[in-house]
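Class, study these two lines:
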Amino acid sequence: MEDKVIVINNLSKYQHYKDRHIIWIKLYVDILQDYKFCQLDDKERWLFIGLMLLGVKCDNKIPLNVPYIAKSALYVARLSQHSINNILQRIHKLEKLELISIKLLSSCYQEAILDKNVDKKEKKSAINFFPYREMKDVIKNKLKW
């Protein structure tokens, strides 16, 4: 069985820095008017915010492990089976509203692989776009005294 991860959709919208250790996220007032966010009850809202914070720490690949999420994002020390089921129901509601996605860990890495042919085409078009030989002659003529 492959491991599943939670991915926060549009997480980059809430990140300020991408090149250093992140200690905070941007949470805009606009989220209060967001239709999807307004469909959540208070516990689901806190879960979503906690998942956003975890997403930043986990490179947006949060393990779908309810005890880990409960301790890390919700600060719940003891979990009963009833609590685990409630958290799973909330997670699935977030997924249904498309605030998060649940993916197999292997598929997250496959999305990052680039098509080599596309990369070569882009390089060729960039080279053809800049008429190097013509510019070289122009520069030579301009530099003559």
About this structure: Residues 4-110 form one domain. Helices lie at 35-38, 42-57, 66-72, 81-96, 105-110, 116-129, 132-143.
